[in-house]
Structure formats: C-alpha cells, structure tokens
Amino acid sequence: MDTVVSGIRSTGNLHLGNYFGALRNFIDMQYKNRCFFFIADYHSLTTHPDPSKLHGNVKNVLTEYLGAGLDPEQSAIYVQSDVPEVTELYLLLNMHAYIGELQRTASFKDKIRKQADNVNAGLLTYPVLMAADILLHKADCVPVGKDQEQHLEMTRKYARRFNTIYGVEYFPESQPYKFSGELVKVPGLDGNGKMGKSEGNGIYLVDSDKDIRKKVMKALTDSGPTEPNMPMCEGVANLFTMLKIVSGQEVHDYFLEKYNDCSIRYGDLKKQLAEDMIKVIAPIRERILQIQSDDEYLRNVIRRGAEKARESASKTVKEVREIMGFKPF
Ligand code: AMP
Fold first, then answer.
1. Hey, which of 4, 15, 18, 61 would you mutate to test ligand 1's pocket, going by the most ligand atoms within 8 Å of its Cβ?
2. Rounded to an integer, what is the distance from CA 314 to the centroid of its chain?
3. Annotation marks residue 194 as catalytic
4. DSSP sequence for 20-66
5. Which helix or strand (DSSP H or E) is residue 5 part of?
6. Do residues 141 and 174 make contact, with C-beta atoms less than 8 angstroms apart?
7. pLDDT (0 to 100) of residue 180
C-alpha cells in the first residue's frame, strides 16, 4: 500500500471539472492507499487573502470534498496550518534549496508577471513548502496535474539532495500517482475548451437544479447540421464530450447518430445532459449543505485528521532532526 499526499488549494468552489478531472479519482484512490489530503491554507497566503475570508474558504473546500465522498474514516483530511511540523521541515529544506533554481521555476516566473507588485519570498519558496508537504509523510505518490509536474520534480531533487548530503536513504523520490482510468478534461459549455474557475464557466457542486438547467440550456451551439456526418463546431463538440463524461457512452452515441443523420434537436440533448448532471450534483450538494451546518462533525473530522497527520509528521521531523545532527541536552 502506497502513501499518497494531495494538497487542495482553498480558493473558490469546486466545479464539474474538478469533480470529473480529479476528485472522483481521489475517492477511488483512498480505498487502495494510505492517503493524506490537506487543505493548503499556508500556500494561499502567497497572494495575501482577506483575513475575513480565509477560514470560510477552508471550510468550503472541506465541506465540498467531504460532500463529494472523501472519507475521513479512511484518509487523513487536515488543514495544513494545524500541522506545525510542516513549517519546521520547510525551514530545514530551505537550507538546501538554492535561489537560482527557485528563480527558474516556471510557476515563479509566471507569478512575477502576474503579480509584479507582490513578489514575496513565500512565492519564491513555494516549491520548498510543497516538498515539505509531501516529504512530511514520505509520500510514494502524489496526484498532480500538468502544471505541478515541475514542482514534484523539485521535490524529488530535494529528497535526493538531502539523502546525498547526509549519506542516508531516508526520503523517497515521490512519483506522480497513476490513475487506473484515463484522465478526462471537462470542457466549458461556452465554447471554451476547459471548464475552470478563472474561465468563469463553472457548473458548481453547490449549484441548484435550476441553475444547472439554466447553464446547460444556455450552452453554445450552432443552427444544426445541414448534411450527414458534418464536422462539429467547438461548442457542439464540447456538448458531446460533456455528454460522454456525464451521461455515458450509450447516451452519447444515441445523440451522435441523430447528429449524423441531421435529426438532432439540441434542446433534447441539453435536457438529457442537464438531468444527468443533476443526478450527479444533487446528492453531493445535499450532503454539502448538511455538513456545512454540522460544526460538531466538521470539528471532529479536522481534529482526527490533524491527529493522524501529526503522528506521521512528528515522526519524520524527529528523524530528520537526528539525521541533521540536532541532539537533546
Ligand atoms: P484547479 O481548480 O485549477 O486548482 O484544479 C484542481 C484540480 O482539478 C486539478 O487536479 C485539475 O487538473 C483539475 N481540473 C480543473 N479543471 C479541470 C477541467 N476542466 N477538466 C479536468 N480536470 C480539471
């Protein structure tokens, strides 16, 4: 059984892209591995969020992940800042992280462009904090998207460097987690190739049935095929991709046949898609609403998660301190 660590950024609500692209796989993954899921509130500080929103954002992420099926009995679900060991490991790893390599990180260069007025040291050392998150539990695997591959490579570099400097085989070289199924990319229904927060085209796990129907009915299409087997415009192709993900291959093929023989009515396709989305989202949304008002339950989940994480983290930090030469008097 592998140890898997996954960080979740505490910004905004989760949408169907997050669900089908990541979360659904996490739910499956947690029953086959020893999983640590943490909510990355320290990481969110690199952009100086409004203090009055910090806690609410953490709570949103927590309730949405629990509502979607992360199981606190099975996995450690914790808030990063509840595990102070991560800050010590971050400090220790920072001593072997070189300024030049941090400055060359693609995400840092990108941030310099995007927030030129706030290029703080936290941004520069973001990959070191991420390495500390992962190495704190000596993770074998980390489920990462394309944008995080370089950071995971840096984590491996810091692990190797630590092992070499101190002549130990201590930290593992954490690998990207390989999901059994194919990873899907969820399109936007506004003709955009991707559903995303910043794209502003999300269908959210907390959306009401009415909102879902409204968003789907507004999806971009054309005036319909005029000859058999016509190529699709991007908006229509996106609807079909979505149909395959949400409704399944059979429903997709039924409508494809109608598209190809020009008898399709987009309204029928959209109605089917909206109802199938509701079948996925409504039970999740109901659970989220229920959990949101159950402070006692949330406190227990977070306390248990922090306990499990600290047990693993304190063992690592103690061993790292010994390796580095710290000794009690
Ligand atoms: P983000 O919301 O961009 O921080 O992404 C969180 C996770 O959801 C990452 O693992 C992404 O790869 C995944 N994700 C976000 N949007 C999509 C999408 N439209 N299709 C598939 N996966 C997505």
1. 18
2. 25
3. yes
4. IIIIHHHHHHTTTSEEEEEEEHHHHGGG---HHHHHHHHHHHHHHHH
5. strand 3-9
6. yes
7. 78
Q: What is the pLDDT of residues 192-231, one digit of tens each?
A: 888 988 788 999 999 999 999 999 999 999 999 999 999 9
Beta-carbon contacts of 85 under 8 Å, excluding residues fewer than 6 positions away, are 136, 310, 313, 314, 316, 317
Ligand 1 atom, smallest distance to 186 CA: 20
Chain mean pLDDT for the chain: 94
List the one residue out of 38, 37, 29 whose CA is nearest residue 2. Answer: 29
Instruction: Please report, for residues 210, 232, 234, 236, 285, the alpha-carbon distance to residue 266 in angstroms, rounded to integers and kept in the order given.
Output: 19, 13, 14, 9, 27
Residue 13: strand, helix, or coil: coil
Element (H, E) at 78: strand 76-79
User: What is the DSSP code string of 304-322?
Assistant: HHHHHHHHHHHHHHHHHHH
62-104 confidence digits (pLDDT tens): 999 999 999 999 999 999 999 999 999 999 999 999 999 999 9
Chain Cα centroid distance, residue 296: 26
Q: Decide if 157 is catalytic.
A: no
Percent of the chain whose pLDDT exceeds 90: 85
Q: Which of 138, 194, 258, 315 is catalytic?
A: 194
pTM, rounded to two decimals = 0.89
Asked if 45 contacts 10 with a C-beta cutoff of 8 angstroms, the reply is: no
Mean pLDDT of all residues in 11-20: 88
Residue 275 CA to ligand 1 center (angstroms) comes to 23
The closest of 186, 189, 185 to 239, measured between CA atoms, is 189
Residues with CB under 6 A from ligand 1: 9, 17-18, 21-22, 145, 185-186, 194-197
